[in-house]
Amino acid sequence: MDILDNRFRALLADKAVPLGSWLMAGTPVTAEAMGCAGFDWLVLDMEHVPIDYQDAYQILQAVGGTPACPVVRLAWNDLVQIKRALDIGAQTLMFPFVENAAEARSAVAATRYPQPGQAIAGTRGFAAMHRASRYGTVPDYATRANGAVFSIIQLETPAALAQLEEIAAVDGVDALFVGPGDLSAAMGHIGNIGHPEVQAAIADAARRARAIGKPIGIVGPSPEMVHTFISYGYDYVAIASDMGMMMRQANAFITALKPSLAKALDTGAY
């Protein structure tokens, strides 16, 4: 694959539903392990994880040596943050908490270099020497970089879902993503994405995205919930996170062992 071919775009072109997960641990070692585990894509979360761009740089390097495709969720829809993420080699970006078409348009513009004749008025600042251009060794990087970007717009409130079609119609918006956690909170059911009202909104978003031919994704906490989302028509799905899976398994081990350890102490076995 060409260095400027977008791997996430290729994943969505496949017939299968790509499976991802979230990187919350903030370490290259865990990220690399998750990339080797069999996931199709992994979200480097810069919104809720206390990492800086040096950390993100190393995590992208780690995931880059695995079969998984990295996706960078920015902390905010901000021109400087977008530029820095692109310069360290991110090609697929997720923009949190986009509420309307104007905000989506601003996000997309920040991923593009200004170029004559292009439909999108790019606002990305130019630098010749960074990881994205392989430190200047990709000679046509500046003229081809715009086509390497894949923009995922995250819808996290009823107000954003109400404008799904308008947001999806913005030139350069490649895919949508429903954030079920914030959506449940905004609907008055914080922490309960299984609530019937939240599930109805999630199902409706998938139906409407399908109707206009725009790929849409989501994340769920369990295989059962993810299967439900696939049945609604979601095109790409994620399950839990590295930290979530680690804590869940740790709790399962502790729950299984604590009673027997207490019994052994009572009987003098230890």
TrEMBL record:
Alphabetic keyword roster: Lyase, Metal-binding
Keyword set includes Signal: no
Residue stretches making up the HpcH/HpaI aldolase/citrate lyase domain: 21-246
InterPro entries in UniProt: Aldolase/citrate-lyase_domain (IPR005000), HpcH-HpaI_aldolase (IPR050251), Pyrv/PenolPyrv_kinase-like_dom (IPR015813), Pyrv_kinase-like_dom_sf (IPR040442)
Protein's UniProt keywords contain RNA-binding: no
Highest taxon in the source lineage: Bacteria
Reaction(s) the record says it catalyses: D-glyceraldehyde + pyruvate = 2-dehydro-3-deoxy-L-galactonate
Pfam families with a match to the protein in the record: HpcH_HpaI (PF03328)
MF-aspect GO terms: lyase activity
Protein name as it appears in the record: Aldolase/citrate lyase family protein
Organism listed in the record: Janthinobacterium aestuarii
